[in-house]
Amino acid sequence: MKRFIVVGHKAATSGDFKLDDMAGGAGRLDILLRCINSALFLSHSIRRDTEIYLVLQGEPNPPRTIRVNGSEVRYLNPDERSTGALVRNALLKELDDEEIRSSPGIYVSKRSFVQVLDDLAPVSRLVYLKEDGKDVREQAMDGDLTFVLSDHQDLTESEEAELIARDPLTVTLGPLSYHADHCITVMLNELDRRG
Ligand SMILES: C[S@@+](CC[C@H](N)C(=O)[O-])C[C@H]1O[C@@H](n2cnc3c(N)ncnc32)[C@H](O)[C@@H]1O
After folding, report:
1. Which of 32, 54, 177, 185 is the pocket-test mutation for ligand 1 (most atoms within 8 Å of CB)?
2. Cα(110) to centroid of ligand 1, in Å?
3. Model-level pTM?
4. Most buried of the four, 49, 123, 158, 184, by CB within 10 Å?
5. Ligand 1 within 6 A of 135 CB?
6. Is the dihedral angle over the CA atoms 181, 184, 188, 189 positive or is it negative?
7. What is the DSSP track for 133-161?
């Protein structure tokens, strides 16, 4: 299984945003929607062995975690607007302490970044995607992998400390700072090439 956790520091946590304003009023939700696209879409199919967690930390109800599971997801199309509508529907659900299914393969919960790390660290090797990490081409990795990355801002000091405390590999994809969705594409391509 390949998983991605993307932290959206300002991303909307209620469903009352406009689909025309996902880069503005929805707190750069557009970045996270492109991450869903990069994690799950192949040219003519879906990566069924991949899952993405979006940890939304903007107002008014932080945190909210959207989980999109490639083996179950339906009604997902490559355009940002329709994916935004699926995420908005998830954010409109009434929540208690349990994760609930919003639509096939799309789940929503009140989990925080730390709770998501706690859930995944026992079952998956964490990999921190970071500009100054070890070159991915020199880093062996296999088995169940969970890649952690941030949105247009870096992880905060406390988020980074929580991640480092769980002993991740720290890996760079190249000499420049790339968009989060591009990092996902490059990382999956690297894994595809390793077979
Ligand atoms: C747009 S970058 C974050 C903002 C950027 N650090 C800045 O403030 O200039 C989004 C995320 O992609 C990941 N990332 C970007 N470039 C990377 C690289 N060369 N190697 C590994 N991860 C990278 C990191 O997780 C980063 O937080």
Report:
1. 177
2. 25
3. 0.98
4. 184
5. no
6. positive
7. EEEGGG----SSEEEEEESSSPPPHHHHH
CB-ligand 1 contact for 174 (6 Å cutoff): yes
CA distances, 116 to each of 54, 111, 119, 170, 185 (Å): 10, 6, 5, 18, 22
Q: Could you tell me which residues are beta bridge partners of residue 41?
A: 46
**Considering just the CA atoms, what is the radius of gyration of the chain in Å?**
16
Q: Give the distance (Å) from ligand 1 centre to CA of residue 153.
A: 8
Q: pLDDT tens across 108-158, in order?
A: 999 999 999 999 999 999 999 999 999 999 999 999 999 999 999 999 999
Ligand 1 contact, 190 CB (< 6 A): no
